[in-house]
Description:
Elements: H1 6-34, H2 37-43, E1 46-57, E2 63-69, E3 85-91, E4 97-109, E5 113-117, H3 121-129, E6 133-137, H4 141-156, H5 160-170, H6 190-201, E7 205-209, H7 216-227, E8 234-238, H8 241-253, E9 258-260, H9 269-273, H10 276-282, H11 286-301, H12 310-335, E10 338-342, E11 356-362, H13 369-376, E12 379-386, H14 398-403, H15 409-416, E13 421-423, E14 426-427, H16 432-442, E15 448-449, E16 465-469, E17 478-479, E18 486-487, H17 489-506, H18 508-513, E19 518-521, H19 525-537, E20 548-551, E21 561-567, H20 583-590, E22 593-601, H21 603-606, H22 610-621
Parallel strand pairs: 7-12, 7-13, 8-10, 8-11, 9-10, 11-12, 14-15, 16-22, 19-20, 19-21, 21-22
Antiparallel strand pairs: 1-2, 1-6, 2-5, 3-4, 3-6, 4-5, 17-18
Amino acid sequence: MNAVNPILQLHKQRELLELEYKAEREEFQRQTETLGIERKVKRGDCWYPVQAGRSYYNSLNQLVVELTRTADDTDIEHNFEYGRQVMFFAVDALGTPRYFKRTGTVSYAEPQRMVVAVPDAGCVAELKACELLGVQLSFDETTYRLMTAALDRVARARDGRLAELRDMFYNPGKPGKFTFAPMSFPWLNPTQEKAVNEVLRAKDVAVVHGPPGTGKTTTLVEAIFETLRRESQVLVCAQSNMAVDWISERLVDRGIEVLRVGNPTRVNDKMLAFTYERRFEAHPDYPKLWAMRKAVREMQGRRRRGDAGYHDKLDRLKSRATQLEFTINNDLMASARVIACTLAGSSSRVLEGMKFGTLFIDEAAQALEAACWIAIAKAHRVILAGDHCQLPPTVKSLEALKGGLGKTLMERIVETNPQVVTLLKVQYRMNEAIVHFSSQWFYHGQVVSAPQVRNRSILDLDTPMTWVDTTGMDFKEHFVGASFGRVNHDEALLTLNTLHDYFEKIGRQHVLDERIDVGIISPYRAQVQLLRRLVRGTAYFKPYRHLIAVNTVDGFQGQERDVILISLVRANDEGQIGFLRDLRRMNVAITRARMKLIILGDASTLTRHPFYKRLYDYVASLKAPQQQDLSQLPPSL
Length: 637
């Protein structure tokens, strides 16, 4: 591999990030101007109508207001979560939205209720006075600003640890390692144990490559636990709030003191208990701080003309409140062993000036490189965990994607320094026939099944994978807009009929007794929404609705189900398959199934692509479990 100039590469990334920023901003402006409210609601980017409820100051001294959506849109998963910017609008008699000048930031969001931080009391009054009120996601300037600043900071670094890590990540080298005898972890398998040891030995960087079902989170939790025997505190980050929630919850279950900066996506007592905001409120000095803040607001609200000492009194009170807030913050940070936040959240003012010996980045293969550098600036060494053969980061600009913006830091390090990568090789999720195809195509056949799951199945003599071919059924896809993609009504009905027949084969009571859970996946949002409506509107599935989840591939990342059905939608004479060409998404989809995978799709359309041809032939080659010889199944290309 030829040496590259990392500074030039970072400048190029900055240019590509600017292209992505412009593309996303233009797309947002176009949708705001052209998309109707109903379409935005269906996308999950808007609530309308909503009712503004109580307002109060939270523990961070932010004025917040509660918003409740009054429409029954529970079949539509919304995209509101902590930290997202939102804008408000009122709808006039003609149904035209009028946007308010003031914007807000989501503090936390539940399925039907949201708490939003707003700039002032005037905004609250405006919201409460509005009869037909709506709220929608706004364009996120902040994250782009943070990523751009991070790239500039790394490019400018001339010496110091940040410059060392930059140069090491961009060119082949010899990342440093400590030398000590391997530690034994009998509760881990050999590759998991090796991964933990490699993390502990790494002076600079280590990568834990975790294919589906291989226990990446278990390995990462153990690596963090062991690192904390050597260091007083570590920083744990991920791209999304959901990923941060998941690793935080597992660390808490392991008995580790976690401080979650930011609010979780799932609002419950367990998740809220270790958030910064809840811990801040629970500090013994918080009542005193709350009283000071209240006094400041009251003074500002009743200032009297001619009060010569007003400013001195106010400044002294503010100064005491700031000092007490600083003391509480220091106490919280000092008592936590793990600080957990998103990559963008690592720039929070409550973490200002903090440095960490080790930074762990989970789901690193889903994060843009620029986002990773936000957190890396706070760390001495970096541990990345993820799988670059699953979901990639989202890049909306085709030009930026072609230029290489989608290449993650994890991928870069895997290429330049493969010696720091440990592949987890034993999976604990799927029947061997299901994982075999994924292992051969994506992981060079290195991922194998643990004995306890190798032959797992719901029915005796069941074939673990089937393909329901819709060729010749005259099913057609329909384009419903760039935001929703495509829909195939007949295939959606066939998907539910196929699940109905499989439930009958299993036995309806057996499904309930054994709590056999089902995932229905489609790459297209329009198909997902259609399938949700059909499941909800079909009387047969009423007893099983709590066992059935319907979502996109992205929505199922990190999840698993006993039975998975995949509706591929595409059916056309030209063999066009669109973004189904992103095979990493299909790797995620097929590896969600524990015991049974059913694929529905038009083979004549899909098998013109070599991946789907190989997958179709592989499924056709499967026999009943006692007749299978997986060593004779088709190898990868």
